[in-house]
Give the backbone structure.
Amino acid sequence: MAKAIRGQVAQIVSDREVILNRGVADGVEPGMFFKVLDPRTVDITDPETGNILGSISRIKIVLKAAEVAEHLTVAQTFRSHEVNVGGTGNNLLGSLMSPPKYVRQVETLRRGAGEPAPIAERESVVAIGDPFEAATSQEVESSRSVSLWREAVEGESLVQSDPE
C-alpha cells in the first residue's frame, strides 16, 4: 500500500489557491485531491461512561493539485455549482414573474464574499500550517467544508459539481 501523503499549508496565494509543502518528491501528482483539516480535533465522549471514544478532525476545504514542483504543490478549490439568483419564471407576482437567472458559484477560502484576489490569512478559512492529507475523489465529492462560495469570474478554471 502506498504511503499516505500528509503535510501542511505553506502559503495562501489567493481566495482559491494555496501552496502545500509536498511535491513530486513526496508522490504528489497533478489532479490529486487533498483535504485541509482543522488542526483542532474534537473529542467524542461516550454519554454512558464519560470515556473518550476517539477524536475527529473537521474538513476545512478540499483542493485539487493544479501545479506540482519537486517539493511543493499549488492546489486550488475546484468545486462549483449553479444558483438561481433571478425569479422563478412562474406567472405570480413580484420576482416570481422574472425569468430565472443562473450564475456559477465557486468554492473559496474566503470567510466573506468578494472578488478573486490575494487575501490575508485572517480572511481565510485555511491557515498557514494547517494539516492536509491526500483524499479520494469520492471523499472530496461527499465532504462538506466550512468555506464560502462566490460568483465565478470569467476565465476562471471550473469543474462542475454539486457539493451538497
Observations:
- Residues 37 and 59 are 5 Å apart (CA to CA).
- The radius of gyration is 19 Å.
- The longest helix spans residues 137-142.
